[in-house]
Specification:
Rossmann fold; single chain; Serine Threonine Protein Phosphatase 5, Tetratricopeptide repeat; 3 domains; binds flavin-adenine dinucleotide; 431 residues; alpha/beta; five-stranded parallel sheet; DNA Cyclobutane Dipyrimidine Photolyase, subunit A, domain 3
Length: 431
């Protein structure tokens, strides 16, 4: 007997059933749709067993699976190297079409090219869609067709283009849920995938304070930002829904969502930024890269309360407020003269919202090596930042309980560090 032909919808960083472009298109296809997720061992093998992001993915998939169970369907979960998994899927099922949403990171682009080639070899059609961003790849370019490398003109073009298509279409997948295949795949526990629960958890997003975002966002003690970042990273929230909402709420908040897309298009157009300075003129900077200094930064024991509170928040929760991220990043690159790539790697290990484009983009911004970056001679004074943004030391006390009992000496004097940074950058920047 010939096997039933199916379509496969492959979940990746779009872990939701609603307003999901590739899923919507899959459900319009003629075959019953099997939803799939692959725990990719090429990524998992480099992570600790209690990585909180894997737990979050598992939890998000479990929520999706419960909804699917209610309509007689279920999600197919696989674990392995993606090409091997797909190789066996082509044996196991008669797959006529594969649907997925695009991912713009270099690893994902190569992976998807390999899977598309494999599909072709198996006479299967592959369809990919834009879902993660409003404007992708080269949709927003300068008049000469080149990518923007400065944020403000990019943002203006983005807004102009958005206005011409607003409000964005939201995809009504639910009307087509009956096209999911009726099935009953086993849903593995986190332990069966080889991971353990972490005591660090992704917080629910919170949009209740967004109307005052422009006034409160820089104050870590107020804690008024949206906590959307891990949700946008893993796609548990739809960017189209969010932008349609944000546009009516707060321009400054919308600008932050545009920064996200700005850095995504930078990564897409200049993938070298992952491992190289965007501005190659900065390649001559003689970083000190002192291991002991790095350890003090990682453990939040630099003696600068704003830096230490931020690093302790990161280590304890997988999150750090944006203002504090800017301060700790500047401190690492400029006060300690440690290559931004060390800080980027540490954040990548710890952040629940770790996203290659935003992390690299912001680290290079802080180091001064990026496009549209902070000027090299701008060296944040962590104590002035503290006075400006946490005057009553409320945030500091939360993360440094010993703060009031004679906090330690700064590991390096600010004026000395600032002068050394400026001199080192000046000497290193190629004319
Ligand atoms: P909100 O202030 O509520 O902002 C809403 C959304 O806008 C965020 O969720 C995010 O998607 C986007 N956004 C806000 N600021 C930025 C920004 N500067 N660049 C890009 N997108 C932005 N953000 C990440 O998502 N992943 C990272 O790996 C990451 N690494 C960073 C590293 C450094 C050194 C710095 C300075 C910033 C980094 N950011 C990163 C940006 C920013 O700090 C976080 O997006 C923000 O703090 C997340 O909290 P929120 O969702 O409450 O933000």
């Amino acid at each position: 007997m010939t096997k039933q032909e199916v379509s496969i919808f492959w979940f990746r960083r779009d872990l939701r059933l609603e307003d999901n472009v590739a899923l919507y298109n899959a459900l319009q296809s003629d075959q019953p749709v099997i939803p799939l997720f692959i725990f990719d061992t090429d990524i998992l093998n480099s992570l600790p067993k209690n990585d909180a992001r894997v737990g979050f993915i598992h939890e998000s998939l479990s929520k999706i699976n419960i909804k699917l169970n209610a309509i007689g369907s279920s999600i197919l979960i696989k674990k392995g190297a993606t090409t091997e998994v797909w190789g066996s899927l082509f044996q196991e099922f008669t797959i006529s079409k594969v649907f997925f949403n695009k991912d713009y990171e270099p690893y994902a682009i190569n992976r998807d090219l390999a899977i598309s080639a494999l599909a072709k070899a198996n006479n299967t059609l592959c369809f990919s869609f834009k879902d993660q961003v409003i404007f992708e790849e080269k949709e927003i370019t300068k008049s000469d067709g080149l990518p923007y490398t400065i944020y403000t003109p990019y943002k203006n073009k983005w807004l102009e283009k958005y206005k011409s298509i607003a409000p964005l279409v939201e995809y009504d997948t639910e009307s087509y849920f009956s096209n999911f295949q009726k099935n009953n795949f086993d849903f593995p526990t986190l332990q069966q995938i080889g991971f353990e629960e972490s005591n660090i958890k992704v917080q629910p997003h919170n949009l209740t304070q967004i109307s005052n975002y422009h006034e409160t966002r820089d104050f870590p003690a107020i804690d008024s930002t949206s906590y959307l970042s891990p949700h946008l990273r893993f796609g548990t929230v739809s960017i189209r829904k969010l932008v349609n909402w944000a546009v009516r709420k707060n321009d400054v908040f919308l600008s932050e969502l545009i920064w996200r897309e700005f850095f995504m298009q930078i990564l897409f157009s200049f993938p070298k930024v992952v491992t190289h300075n965007f501005k190659s003129a900065y390649d001559g900077i003689q970083w000190r890269n002192n291991e002991e200094d790095f350890k003090r930064w990682c453990t939040g024991t630099t003696g600068y309360p704003m830096v230490d509170a931020g690093m302790r928040q990161l280590n304890a929760t997988g999150y750090m407020h944006n203002r504090v991220r800017m301060v700790v990043a500047s401190f690492l690159c400029k006060h300690l003269l440690i290559n931004w790539q060390w800080g980027e790697a540490y954040f990548a290990e710890k952040l629940l919202d770790y996203d290659l484009s935003a992390n690299v983009g912001n680290w290079q911004w802080a180091a001064g090596t990026g496009c549209d970056a902070a000027p090299y001679f701008r060296v944040f004074n962590p104590d002035i930042q503290l006075k400006k943004f946490d005057e009553k030391a409320i945030y500091i006390r939360k993360w440094i309980p010993e703060f009031d009992f004679g906090y330690g000496q700064p590991m390096i004097e600010h004026a000395f560090a600032r002068d050394r940074a400026v001199a080192t950058y000046k000497a290193g920047i190629l004319k």
